[in-house]
Design a protein that fits this description.
With 198 residues, the protein is an alpha/beta fold. It has a 7-stranded mixed beta sheet, with helices on both faces. It is globular. The N and C termini lie far apart (35 Å).
Length: 198
């Protein structure tokens, strides 16, 4: 398994510079777009960690959600976002390690961040997500569903494994095969909705 140091800001910046960004769809992911389109409360405080080029944040912002925070350990995708999405509040672009983020949010969206972390960081991820959410706050998004190997990122996993991390902090409202994945990811994604336990 790659060490934590392999997942530094430099590691990810290099991937962007070399265009080794296979996770980047070039647009908002279909399952998250479908989910976002149900929102009526534009005051929600939303975090998108490990956001990369953050198409989900762009979509939200253009729909009138002004309380969206984008975080990434690499400055490169944040610069890409800034040049693409004019008027987005600069203080809501966080160039930081996810585990250093402060504050609390109503909703956190997960899109290819979890699978990019070293596998040994997964229990810590679940705990940190709980800390970052307000009471009854939601963690929603996509997790990969394919065998976990030492090859990655992205690293795979399965429903049973994921439940071991999240069940102690969250009420599992949805964790099921994603019905509207893009074709290359068909059958390899789980859509989930976890509510922070009181």
């Amino acid at each position: 398994m790659m060490s934590n140091s392999s997942f530094s800001s430099e590691f990810w910046s290099q991937r962007y510079k070399q265009h080794k960004t296979g996770w980047d769809l070039g647009e908002i992911s279909r399952p998250l777009k479908t989910y976002i389109d149900q929102f009526t409360n534009r005051e929600l405080k939303i975090l998108i960690p490990g956001a990369g080029n953050a198409y989900e944040a762009e979509y939200l912002f253009r729909k009138g959600f002004s309380n969206v925070f984008v975080a990434d350990i690499s400055e490169k995708p944040l610069q890409n976002f800034k040049s693409r999405v004019h008027g987005f509040p600069e203080d809501q672009l966080l160039h930081t390690n996810f585990f250093d983020i402060k504050g609390q949010f109503d909703l956190i969206l997960e899109q290819t961040f979890f699978c990019a972390l070293p596998v040994e960081a997964r229990p810590e991820y679940a705990k940190k997500m709980s800390v970052l959410l307000k009471d009854q706050g939601l963690l929603v998004g996509l997790l990969f569903s394919f065998p976990l190997t030492e090859n990655g990122p992205p690293f795979g996993g399965n429903k049973e494994e994921y439940l071991t991390y999240f069940s102690q902090y969250f009420k599992i409202e949805v964790l099921e095969d994603c019905y509207n994945s893009i074709t290359p990811r068909q059958g390899n994604e789980l859509f989930f909705k976890f509510r922070k336990k009181l």
